């Protein structure tokens, strides 16, 4: 039996066999739009010829699909070239910040993440050599063997970006289990340009971006960025019960996000064993042990993701961050 256009779109994003992904495409793209997406990549004129439609009509459809996050565009020598979303991550992240997304669309994504994402994530982790994302530590001093690299420093990532925009966190938009801040996903550089061109976020000054970073640290959110040296398009601020990566990393041990190059360390002479840090650790790296009849924090370095959230709440400044992995840990 021939596949319908929505099943063909599902094949194009490498999710063949999914029952929910075709429904997601169907909900926000009619059959004409689906055929147009299948005809990509191409310019407006090329696509109009392939689907047998008027170029101006095709232009209007592409503008709508671009705002929805179903197609992307780039300037090439032959003109502006459009292509459909590349994979699950782009489909998820781009369409969920579409301002007009109806609640039933968000609910269907939530259903996908609950029912189909865990098995697909397990498959992906077995195929990829390294996770797509990694943790970066909080905006606090870090003990390092050499100078801190720009892509390890959340403040420098923001300072060196041309523009910064903020969007809603896609995971908390569809789940919202924890009640933590939602409008905190920072897009930097070219990603900010794209976000503002689509109208799916708002531009913020670098000062406001740093305020958002500090608010996220106080709220107990972990900074996450791209797992490539010198390349950062986003700074996500993730929780442990909505994040599509952290939930499976914590529950099932799936390697969906690399740690930072750093780990927490404790000064036992300063630590009073108050336990303020324990609930800040999503990853089970902290525990209280008895040391000379006084409770003190013990750190499991194998579990520590190097986020530094524990250091933010330590009243005695007994917890600090130190470098435990070399610069070559981050893929080039």
Write the layout of secondary structure elements.
Blueprint: H1 5-12, H2 21-28, H3 31-39, H4 44-51, H5 55-68, E1 71-76, E2 79-84, H6 88-95, H7 103-115, H8 117-127, E3 133-135, E4 142-143, H9 154-159, E5 164-167, H10 170-174, E6 185-188, H11 190-198, E7 202-203, H12 206-219, E8 222-226, E9 234-238, H13 246-252, E10 257-258, E11 262-266, E12 286-291, E13 294-299, H14 309-313, E14 319-323
Parallel strand pairs: 3-10, 4-14
Antiparallel strand pairs: 1-2, 3-8, 5-6, 5-7, 6-9, 8-9, 11-14, 12-13
Helix pairs in contact: 1-2, 1-3, 2-7, 4-5
Question: Key features?
Answer:
332 residues, Alpha-Beta Plaits, 3 domains, seven-stranded mixed sheet, elongated
Task: Describe the protein.
The protein has 14 helices and 14 strands. With 332 residues, it is of the alpha+beta class. The chain has 3 domains: 5-115, Arc Repressor Mutant, subunit A; 130-258, no CATH class; 260-324, Alpha-Beta Plaits, CATH 3.30.70.20. Strands 7-5-6-9-8-3-10 form a 7-stranded mixed sheet. A 3-stranded mixed sheet has the order 4-14-11, with no helix packed on it. A two-stranded antiparallel sheet has the order 1-2. A hairpin with a 7-residue loop joins strand 8 (222-226) and strand 9. Helix 1 crosses helix 2. The longest helix has 14 residues, at 55-68. The chain is elongated. The model has no long low-confidence stretch (mean pLDDT 91).
């Amino acid at each position: 039996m021939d596949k319908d256009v929505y099943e063909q779109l599902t094949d194009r994003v490498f999710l063949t066999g999914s029952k929910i992904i075709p429904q997601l495409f169907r909900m926000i793209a009619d059959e004409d739009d689906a055929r147009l997406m299948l005809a990509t990549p191409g310019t407006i004129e090329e696509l109009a010829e392939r689907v047998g439609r008027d170029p101006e009509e095709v232009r209007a459809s592409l503008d709508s699909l671009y705002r929805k996050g179903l197609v992307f565009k780039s300037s090439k020598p032959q003109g502006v070239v459009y292509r459909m979303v590349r994979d699950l991550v782009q489909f998820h992240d781009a369409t969920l910040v579409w301002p007009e997304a109806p609640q039933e669309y968000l609910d269907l994504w939530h259903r996908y993440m609950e029912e189909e994402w865990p098995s697909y994530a397990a498959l992906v982790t077995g195929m990829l050599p390294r996770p797509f994302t990694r943790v970066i530590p909080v905006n606090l001093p870090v003990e390092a063997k050499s100078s801190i690299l720009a892509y390890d420093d959340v403040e420098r990532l923001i300072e060196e970006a041309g523009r910064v925009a903020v969007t809603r966190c896609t995971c908390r938009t569809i789940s919202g289990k924890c009640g933590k801040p939602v409008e905190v996903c920072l897009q930097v550089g070219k990603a900010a340009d794209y976000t503002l061109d689509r109208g799916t976020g708002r531009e913020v000054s670098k000062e406001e971006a740093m305020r958002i970073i500090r608010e996220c640290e106080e709220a107990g959110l972990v900074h996450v960025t791209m797992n490539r040296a010198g390349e950062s398009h986003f700074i996500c601020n993730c929780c442990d019960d909505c994040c599509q990566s952290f939930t499976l990393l914590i529950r099932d041990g799936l390697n969906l996000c690399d740690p930072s190059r750093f780990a927490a360390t404790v000064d036992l002479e300063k630590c009073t064993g108050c336990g303020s840090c324990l609930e800040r650790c999503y990853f089970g790296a902290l525990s209280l042990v008895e040391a000379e009849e006084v409770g003190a924090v013990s750190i499991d370095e194998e579990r520590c993701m190097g986020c530094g959230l524990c250091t933010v709440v330590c009243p005695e400044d007994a917890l600090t961050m130190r470098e435990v992995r070399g610069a070559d840990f981050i893929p080039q």
